[in-house]
Amino acid sequence: MTAKKKSAAKKKPAKKAKAPSHAGFYKEVAAQGWRQTGYMTFSSSYLTLRRWLTAQLPAKKLRILSIGCGSGELEIHLADQSHRVTGIDLSLAMLIRGARKGFARTAQADALALPFGAASFDAVIIPETIGHLPLAEAIAEARRVLKKRGRILITSYGGAVQAHAKFKKYRRFDIADALTDAGFLVDAQHDLTVTSKSVRDAPAERDADIIYVAATRLD
User: At what angle do helices 92-101 and 73-80 cross, to 10 degrees?
Assistant: First the structure.
């Protein structure tokens, strides 16, 4: 969920330091904001991506679960389009930051043990979060809370992005294969370049800022 675009300029090698814990890092983000940490998420930083992701969902009002909602920028945008959005995150500090922005339908919860009954949501979004989770287990739990024919949207980072040390960069085909194995029909895949003016297809995953995979639960 944390990234920065790679610089074309060469830099001197830095001494390897121990990466901060997830909890410590997100507490710092909640206190200071993304810009002060040197990292960001594309869905929080780019309105263009928030609009693009919203357009991938049916226009009708949906019950949506966002796994790893952070401070809620994408979720507030979805709610503004009349969707009923619930967010979960392990970081209480990030949820508090989101509540101050107006996103309060949240729970501090583990993505591998969601506090919701089966078939509770029309759609599940995992926005720039999957790299903090074991892929198969996270998808299986998301599937459990999805209704039949429900939609799942997953974004992660492409080759143009340097992810935080604690974030695992799954390949797009890894995500698609895991969805298929879990009983989903994968119906959309994109390698995307994201700017403040547009979201467009990148030439290849190695050139992409964001990779996107969407699928439908079959049964």
Answer: 40
- Give the separation between CA 73 and CA 34, rounded to whole angstroms: 12
Kind plus residue range of the DSSP H or E element containing 145: helix 135-145
Angle in degrees, CA 163, 56, 146, rounded to 5? 85
Every domain of the chain and the residues it spans: 39-217
The whole-angstrom separation of Cα 25 and Cα 128 is: 15
106/84 Cα distance (integer angstroms): 12
CB 182 within 8 A of CB 150: no
**What tens digit of pLDDT does each residue of 68-107 get?**
999 999 999 999 999 999 999 998 988 999 999 999 999 9
Q: Please check whether the domain covering 39-217 is classified as CATH 3.40.50.150.
A: yes
Pairing relationship of beta strands 210-217 and 3-5 according to DSSP bridges: unpaired
Tens digits of per-residue pLDDT, 204-216? 999 999 999 999 9
Task: Please provide the DSSP assignment of 160-189 as one string.
Answer: TEEE-TT-----HHHHHHHHHHTTEEEEEE
- Confidence (pTM): 0.86
